[in-house]
Give the backbone structure.
Amino acid sequence: MIGIFDSGIGGLTVVKKIFEYLNRYQVLYIGDTARAPYGDRGKEVIKRYAFQATDFLLHKGAKIIVVACNTISAVAVDDLKKKYNVPIFEVVNPGVRAAVKATKNKRVGVIGTRATINSKIYEKLLHKADKKIQVFTRPAPLLVPLVEENWIKKPETKMIAKRYLHPLRLKQIDTLILACTHYPFLKKLISLKVGKNVTIIDPGEEVAKVVKKYIDQHRDIEKMLKKGSRHQFFVSDKTEKFQTAANHWLGTKIKLKKVDMYMNIEQA
Ligand code: DGL
């Protein structure tokens, strides 16, 4: 199975792309909805939560791990790669590569959680790829709870999105990285507020392409992955709200199962 995790339901935007690019394989998803958002938490806490989610997915039979969260990718992926001996994919590098390719005027915007923006990982990697790129970053933390609330079309959400994106519009960026897997839920609104001519990069889509390429090139791993559509979705807190948002986003009725991530995973 392909194991995918996020702090909440944002990672479903990555699941959707994995379904698009790799529809033969079973997916195992865990969203830590009880403890989301992660984006304002400290590094050590985020790492601990990332270990718990990875343990859970491996225990359930995942053979590949996709970190469907920029915050965890920014602060914990090196530690995950050190600890676990399975292929682990993250969203930051694929997003950066796509932005470098897309920008013409070399002015790239990045919105993400505070933890992601403060880590400066996007600036670092964008500059490493091309010194001439100017990077304009902005934390947009309120968009995460608005998505978790399924407030996609509310006027309040439009107002907040404008507040975050208008300054980037003024910087005349031609490319914007959605450096939080919750944000693709708001892609249309974000595009409207930042300017329709700005290319929007969804790192979730980019990582799906990377995972596909990897699986195509690694027969040994491919053989180990379960095929079919018996996907499983776990959350650490199950509410009507998450269920509705998840069904809506994936365009099909899915069964969310509640699991206590802080308990011994053997009991899960
Ligand atoms: N969706 C996650 C990300 O990509 C985390 C959002 C949060 O939990 O704050 O950053």
